[in-house]
Write a structure and sequence with these properties.
This protein is an alpha+beta fold. It has helices spanning about 85-100, 110-125, 130-145, 190-200, 205-225, 230-235, and strands at about 5-20, 20-30, 35-40, 60-65, 70-75, 165-170, 175, 190.
């Protein structure tokens, strides 16, 4: 049975050339989550979709098709694209790539859709970029059922001690380690004070911010597989 989706709020996450003049695109939609679709003729200079199929542009898309892959039948927008520049542009592309890699097709994520919109607006503004990204990463993991418990030890269930050090295992949590085992540095060890600061989203301190970034990279890496994120190379090449 053919499915028709009319004027669905959406953002373009990713696009690739397809056949001679078309594009293969991934949308993040309000009611249907991630949807892959073909934009026929969108690479043609005469295409009415060409200027609209850009990242960070609020769209209303109409789609149809029998299988998982749909065909675009209409695109509208009365709003301008959110303009991101320099490192904030790369941050937006990073957020988009996470969604493409981690969201299943046709699974609704309304709360995450609103968080995504808020993230783009925050990236356009003056809010600290690292704070914006960590907040989104935590929300994404929680939405997908992989939320990090920043409150307590996963074995003893005692509250995280700011004076302690913890071993982190993705999808399991934090475990307090004996003082003598922290003498040798480990990428899986985290200071309790940094965990508590991340829970409060207080990342002004540089060491805390670096620790939070390392933690979220570990947590996300468990679900991204071995394939690196293309957007991270953009940060590296322009830092």
């Amino acid at each position: 049975m053919e499915t028709r989706i009319l004027l669905q709020p959406a953002y373009l996450l990713h696009r690739l050339p397809f056949q001679n003049t078309s594009l293969l695109v991934d949308f993040f939609t309000m009611d249907f989550g991630r949807i892959r679709a073909v934009a026929k003729g969108a690479r043609s200079a005469k295409s009415k979709y060409r200027s609209l199929l850009q990242p960070f542009h609020p769209l209303l898309v109409s789609l149809s098709g029998r299988g998982e892959m749909k065909t675009i039948t209409g695109i509208e927008s009365g709003l301008a694209a959110i303009n991101l520049q320099a490192q904030r542009l790369f941050s937006g592309l990073y957020v988009n790539e996470l969604l493409v890699r981690l969201l299943l097709n046709h699974v609704e994520h309304k709360d995450l859709y609103r968080i995504y919109q808020d993230t783009l607006v925050a990236l356009r503004g003056s809010t600290d970029m690292e704070l914006v990204l960590r907040r989104f990463e935590l929300s994404l993991l929680a939405e997908l059922g992989y939320g990090i418990n920043l409150e307590s030890d996963c074995h003893s269930h005692e509250a995280i001690d700011e004076a302690g050090n913890y071993h982190f295992t993705p999808d399991v949590g934090f475990e307090l380690v004996a003082a003598e085992t922290t003498q040798h540095s480990s990428s899986k060890l985290f200071a309790g004070e940094h965990i508590v600061a991340l829970r409060k989203l207080e990342l002004d301190d540089k060491d805390t911010a670096r620790s939070a970034k390392r933690l979220l990279r570990m947590a996300l890496g468990a679900h991204l597989g071995g394939k690196p994120l293309n957007s991270r190379s953009l940060f590296a090449n322009h830092s």
